[in-house]
Design goal:
Radius of gyration: 16 Å
Strand order of the largest sheet: 1-2-3-4-5-6-7-8
Largest sheet: 8 strands, antiparallel, barrel
Order of helices and strands: EEEEEEEE
Structural class: mainly beta
Oligomer: single chain
Strand content: over 45%
Helix content: under 10%
Length: about 140
């Protein structure tokens, strides 16, 4: 589990076999509370569900936060000399959006990282004003 408050990570789910299984999964700590993340790719973005850890239970606890993250297009970097790759411009923000709970909302930013075997995303959370229009909660089975 992540040990830094208001940070987390998620990974592509390599074992996805059914539409009801998440496309991405991970964990985070928000305001010193541990959560699990489950994300489902939809046409409008990445529907993110944040809930307490499931532990040994066979069912998922109710979501504490939900939201939709929008993909962030990577900016075109400057071309290097003689066909060399462009210089590193730092971590690429891949997803950004707001997750909303009963009393609070967080701006979430997911930055792409390269692991030993695959890409993953590092998450940062920043407390923000709760949107006035209610966020549509997307069912995992939808």
């Amino acid at each position: 589990m992540s040990s830094v408050p208001d940070r987390g990570k998620f990974f592509t789910n390599p074992d996805k076999k059914k539409p009801s299984q998440p496309d991405v999964f991970g964990d985070c700590v928000i305001n010193n509370v541990a959560y699990e993340l489950h994300g489902f790719k939809r046409s409008e973005g990445l529907a993110l569900h944040v809930a307490p850890p499931r532990g040994d239970r066979n069912t998922y606890p109710p979501d504490v936060f939900r939201g939709v993250l929008d993909a962030v297009e990577k900016p075109a970097g400057p071309k290097g000399k003689k066909g060399a790759p462009p210089p590193d411009t730092g971590p690429a923000v891949a997803w950004r959006g707001v997750i909303v709970g009963e009393d609070v909302a967080y701006l979430l930013t997911a930055t792409e990282k390269q692991g030993k075997s695959d890409l993953y995303w590092v998450l940062t959370f920043e407390k923000t004003e709760k949107p006035t229009d209610e966020v549509e909660w997307v069912d995992a089975d939808a």
